[in-house]
């Protein structure tokens, strides 16, 4: 067995999560990896930039876009598709009708999508009050009557908004004309006012261009959009525009002090008019990340490629393939805060078999079984807590204090031969560098119960935090001379975690956030040997000497004399 004393202390502390919007991070390798569907934590928005050269009088070719749309229809994780304008080169009726025919592939399959007019789709000198055009005839509000996402358009028909549902919430997409009039701005503000809790992705043809340093910079018209619409509407967290090239991105700070991610996407200057490149914006709310990929489904599907095509299948520059870290809950908290789960009274979590239950505001055993605690040293009560903790509080252990069950507590003598569940909530501080500190530990060593295997000076049972913030549960079972050890993984600092040790009378499993971990031993381990000594909360003992107090926050702690299923954990809803 690997004990805390023989474990190689070469593991660094887990790095604290830091939101750094600008640097690019590698996205996943597989173009169709996962395909998780839109019902979980992940979904995809597909973005199609300027396709104008594909629909240019008699000089175009619709097949690259048709192939891209076929690809999108075949993906089950696409929640929405957004075109960024300049659908055509000249805005001619024949060109508009041609691309309109291509987009019927999405209409037939009821795929939600938006389009908007670019300067090449109509008279660029006009705003959204221009009246009837071939673009409006083809892509006006009437086209979207059967759309599953279309929710309305401005009276002139050139601005629209869509709402789609993915990852358990609704998202709003604004699709704005090449040049909005004051009436257009008023309409857009009204849409946001009527949907105050929805996060918003703003799409338009012109907003930002690539500055000299490669960072996106607002154009003159983009500055007006920012000042008159984006800046004061915290719901807008992402903007997408085409028109300019090369691609670029930037992070701007709105009036609420929050980030707005500004992205330019346009490949019309590349081979074959951009080969109908698309952008996949792969949202992952569990990872708080948007992974961005840029590639051509048309080229991807071709059986043979010429010299130039081989260079264009996928683009991997910093502005084409990157990841955007966003703490979605925090970013949206100003307009759509996550509801706080109410505190629950102790009686609601005293499941059958509960032998001890402690909260941060008392030393009393709330199970009523007399397993009260005494305090040694200094501990600090706080309001900080896990989102699913029954009690809204915790204790902060600063390496100098701990708790112990009182002498004579029934828990001290229990052997748990039917099984057990030990649960608590922990949060490690930034820069955690205090490995092998105990969370819940028997004071008595293995030798006190007649154990001779491994290191009998180790405690009879200990749940502790090892190097790098990894969990360890090491126990001398009733049926073994030595110890049995479960290992966890390194956990992020400054994050609340629910941890559970579950034994069914033969096998022990370690859980974090309800997820079973890997390194759980298969050798039967029955019960916990005892010598009648106390249990320590927030400390580790070696040979009956308290060596290391915990460093971090500790929330509710519950001990049950049987194995609980995950749907009965303290986090259960």
Q: How many DSSP H or I helices?
A: 8
SSE-based structural type: alpha+beta
Question: What is the mean predicted local confidence, pLDDT?
Answer: 93
Query: What is the gyration radius calculated from CA atoms?
Result: 30 Å
Query: Mind summarizing the main beta sheet?
Result: 8 strands, antiparallel
Strand content: 25-35%
How many strands appear in the DSSP assignment?
33
C-alpha end-to-end distance:
37 Å
What share of the residues lie within helices?
A: 10-25%
Q: Which spans have pLDDT < 50 for at least 5 consecutive residues?
A: 1-37
- The geometry reads as elongated
What would you say this structure looks like, in words?
It is built from eight helices and 33 strands. By secondary structure, the chain is α+β, with helices and mostly antiparallel strands. Strands 17, 19, 20, 22, 27, 28, 29 and 33 form an eight-stranded antiparallel sheet that branches. Strand 8 and strand 9 form a beta hairpin. The N terminus is likely disordered.
Secondary structure elements and pairings:
Layout lengths: L41 E7 L14 H11 L4 E6 L9 H16 L4 E2 L19 H6 L10 E4 L6 E7 L2 E7 L6 H13 L5 E5 L3 E3 L5 E3 L1 H11 L5 E6 L6 E6 L5 E6 L13 E7 L4 E7 L1 H5 L5 H6 L1 E2 L6 E4 L2 H4 L22 E5 L14 E4 L3 E3 L11 E5 L3 E4 L14 E8 L9 E6 L18 E5 L4 E6 L8 E7 L5 E8 L4 E5 L2 E2 L18 E3 L1 E4 L2 E5 L1 E10 L13
Helix pairs in contact: 1-2
């Amino acid at each position: 067995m690997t004990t805390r004393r023989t474990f190689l202390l070469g593991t660094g502390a887990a790095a604290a999560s830091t939101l750094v919007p600008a640097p690019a991070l590698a996205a996943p390798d597989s173009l169709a990896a996962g395909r998780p569907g839109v019902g979980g934590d992940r979904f995809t928005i597909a973005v199609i930039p300027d396709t104008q050269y594909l629909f240019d009088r008699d000089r175009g070719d619709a097949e690259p876009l048709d192939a891209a749309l076929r690809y999108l229809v075949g993906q089950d994780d696409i929640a929405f598709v957004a075109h960024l304008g300049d659908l055509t080169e000249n805005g001619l009726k024949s060109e508009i009708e041609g691309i309109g025919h291509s987009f019927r592939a999405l209409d037939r399959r009821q795929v939600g999508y938006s389009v908007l007019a670019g300067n090449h789709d109509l008279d660029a000198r006009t705003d959204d009050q221009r009246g009837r055009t071939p673009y409006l005839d083809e892509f006006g509000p009437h086209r979207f009557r059967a759309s599953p996402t279309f929710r309305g358009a401005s009276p002139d028909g050139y601005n629209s908004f869509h709402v789609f549902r993915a990852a358990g919430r609704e998202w709003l997409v604004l699709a704005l004309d090449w040049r909005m009039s004051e009436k257009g701005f008023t309409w857009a503000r009204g849409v946001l006012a009527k949907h105050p809790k929805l996060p918003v992705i703003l799409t338009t043809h012109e907003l930002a261009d690539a500055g000299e340093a490669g960072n996106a910079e607002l154009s003159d018209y983009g500055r007006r959009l920012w000042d008159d619409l984006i800046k004061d509407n915290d719901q807008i967290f992402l903007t997408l525009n085409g028109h300019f090239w090369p691609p670029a991105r930037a992070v701007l700070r709105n009036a609420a002090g929050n980030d707005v991610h500004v992205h330019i996407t346009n490949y019309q200057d590349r081979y074959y008019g951009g080969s109908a490149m698309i952008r996949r914006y792969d949202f992952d709310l569990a990872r708080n990340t948007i992974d961005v990929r840029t590639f051509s489904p048309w080229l991807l599907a071709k059986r043979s490629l010429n010299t130039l095509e081989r260079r264009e299948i996928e683009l991997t520059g910093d502005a084409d393939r990157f990841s955007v870290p966003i703490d979605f809950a925090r970013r949206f908290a100003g307009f759509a805060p996550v509801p706080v789960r109410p505190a629950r009274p102790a009686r609601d979590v005293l499941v059958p078999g509960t032998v001890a239950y402690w909260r941060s505001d008392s030393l009393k055993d709330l199970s009523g079984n007399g397993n009260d605690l005494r305090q040694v040293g200094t501990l600090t009560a706080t309001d900080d807590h896990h989102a699913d903790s029954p009690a809204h509080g915790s204790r902060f252990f600063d390496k100098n204090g701990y708790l112990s069950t009182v002498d004579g507590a029934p828990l001290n003598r229990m052997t748990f031969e039917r099984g057990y569940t030990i649960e608590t909530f922990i949060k490690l501080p930034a820069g955690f560098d205090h490995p092998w500190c105990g969370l819940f530990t028997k004071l008595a060593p293995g030798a006190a119960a007649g154990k001779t295997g491994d290191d009998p000076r180790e405690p009879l049972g200990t749940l502790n935090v090892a190097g790098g913030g990894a969990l360890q549960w090491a126990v001398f079972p009733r049926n073994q001379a030595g110890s049995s050890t479960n290992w966890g993984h390194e956990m992020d600092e400054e994050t609340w975690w629910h941890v559970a040790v579950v034994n069914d009378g033969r096998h022990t499993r370690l859980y974090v956030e309800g997820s079973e971990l890997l390194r759980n031993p298969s050798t039967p381990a029955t019960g916990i040997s005892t010598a009648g000594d106390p249990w320590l909360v927030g400390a580790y003992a070696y040979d009956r000497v308290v060596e290391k107090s915990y460093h971090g926050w500790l929330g509710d702690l519950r001990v049950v004399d049987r194995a609980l299923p995950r749907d009965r954990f303290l986090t259960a809803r």
